[in-house]
Amino acid sequence: MESAFAAAVQASPNRPKHGKAYPMIPVTDTLSIEDDEVSEKFVRASGPGGQHVNTSSSAVELRFDARNSPSLPDDVKHRLERIAGSRMNQEGVIVIFAQSHRSQEMNRQDARARLVDLIEQATHKPKPRKKTRPTYASKLKRLEGKSKRSGVKALRGRPGRED
Q1: Would you list the domain boundaries of the chain?
Q2: Low-confidence spans in the chain with pLDDT less than 70
Q3: 100 and 107 in contact (C-beta within 8 Å)?
Q4: Would you call 148 helix, strand, or coil by DSSP?
């Protein structure tokens, strides 16, 4: 007889056909991206590390194709493009470069955390702005301030000829 856990694993929609499950990178409770959507390239870092920095590739260049990602809804993709700014290239790939730590694993975790942060920010829908009108009292106050200011500026001018 099969256990309940084994049955749940068999019925999982995210389970690939070849048997190995891809680890998921959780973003929110309802949204996660597959690990194979993220590619990492390790390069030599500048900065702290002494002689070790010249021999090891501890910096991480993380790439995530946001525009073609099957894990992200369309509205999140559009907001992510706006939020990512210069970190997204023309093809819609987000490039994050992490080199602040000495170890490769710490830089890898830092880059992934920054990616998750970006995507998490894009999941929040902005509140629509409600149009408001200024009150009558605020209009009067503004006009009164303008007239006082114009009076001050008028006094700064050349004195007029009084006949």
Answers
A1: 20-126
A2: 1-22, 47-54, 162-163
A3: yes
A4: helix
